[in-house]
Design brief:
Number of domains: 2
Radius of gyration: 33 Å
Oligomer: single chain
Number of helices: 10
Strand order of the largest sheet: 5-4-3-6-7-9-8
Shape: elongated
Number of strands: 9
CATH superfamily of the largest domain: Vaccinia Virus protein VP39
Distance between the termini: 66 Å
CATH class of the largest domain: Alpha Beta
CATH topology of the largest domain: Rossmann fold
Order of helices and strands: HHHHEEHEHEHEHEHEHEE
Helix content: 40-55%
Strand content: 5-15%
Bound molecules: S-adenosylmethionine
């Protein structure tokens, strides 16, 4: 079709030339004839343009199609990109510096989820979502609720993942927060006030959660070595194969002591030292380092642990 139109275009140029000669040399032919030809010419020009843009669009579509790959292929590429990010010395140095500097300004305290502060970095939130979507836990337990943002995040995921119970444990949960969280989460949420390693509390949990198989556990309470190790030993008992338990704030092991925000944990006494001891004594569990590969700011490097068998 475009070829045909091009030929017409050529004919009309010739025809126009004829008419121009007629008019200029007083050949007596009417100006109307010239006008009609010009109109026809512009009509064809318009169609040529349209066809050319169609042709360009088709070419573009073809080249786009070439680039479309299967999800499997994309995921393989994604894993390669993640390893490259993780293995880059340049990025490692930059992200350590970035964590130290942003932590001084309380970066991990600056986000919120559905109106409540969530003391997590976006990198960790995305990774938690990936784990929960993949492992489909029936029960989520969080030790250390604080302002409740993470509870609301889990509750939101429960609209897609068949999470049946969300359990939040904290030594102190303000009444007003309890009310707000209960309103938003309805009957799925159980809030327990008390020490996460309390004997009675663990007994009750074991009794009430007997019928559930798949768990996701987030340890984010007291970050001292002894407390986290105790939590790991107690809560890992709930896990089945491929279930995850996350020890938050393992980053404390990698950064200078946080003098800007004095805490009882430090470089030698922190969640990572507890994780290392736990992994050494529990061969059924493994750190999923790959989950940290694409993190730029994470509070839990090496803190993502799963049960192997
Ligand atoms: C870092 S905040 C938790 C942040 C929350 N997980 C989030 O993602 O938004 C730590 C919380 O742990 C609580 N906590 C400290 N020691 C605890 C303990 N022994 N048992 C339970 N909760 C504890 C504190 O009261 C505080 O609210």
């Amino acid at each position: 079709m475009p070829k045909l139109i091009n030929r017409f275009n050529f004919l009309f140029v010739i025809l126009q030339l004829d008419i121009w000669i007629c008019i200029n040399f007083n050949c007596g032919k009417s100006i109307l004839y010239y006008f009609i030809c010009t109109l026809i010419k512009y009509y064809f020009r318009y169609h040529i343009k349209k066809c050319n843009s169609h042709k360009k669009l088709n070419q573009l579509n073809k080249s786009m199609k070439k680039k479309i790959i299967s999800l499997n292929e994309f995921n393989q590429k994604k894993n390669r990109w993640k390893s490259k990010i993780f293995n880059s010395d340049k990025i490692r140095k930059l992200k350590k510096k970035l964590y130290i500097e942003t932590d001084k300004l309380n970066y991990s305290y600056t986000h919120s989820w559905l109106g409540e502060p969530i003391l997590q970095t976006p990198d960790d939130i995305v990774t938690q979502q990936e784990i929960i979507y993949k492992t489909k836990p029936e029960v989520i337990i969080e030790t250390g609720v604080c302002w409740g943002g993470s509870i609301l995040f889990y509750n939101m995921l429960s609209k897609i993942v068949p999470i049946k119970k969300i359990i939040g444990i904290d030594i102190f949960i303000p009444k007003t927060l309890k009310k707000r969280l209960k309103n938003k989460c309805k009957d799925k949420l159980i809030l327990i006030e008390g020490d996460s390693t309390g004997e009675d509390l663990i007994k009750k949990l074991k009794k009430n959660l007997k019928k559930y198989k798949n768990f996701y556990i987030h340890l984010d309470s007291d970050h001292r070595h002894d407390h986290v190790l105790k939590e790991l030993n107690l809560y890992s008992k709930f896990l089945n194969k491929n279930n995850y338990i996350v020890a938050d704030d393992t980053i404390v092991n990698e950064i200078p002591n946080q003098t800007h925000r004095p805490r009882p944990w430090n470089k030698n006494d922190n969640p990572m030292t507890a994780v290392n001891k736990f992994i050494k004594n529990n061969k059924n569990f493994k750190i999923d380092y790959k989950l940290n590969y694409n993190h730029l700011i994470s509070s839990s490097p090496g803190g993502y642990i799963y049960r192997k068998k």
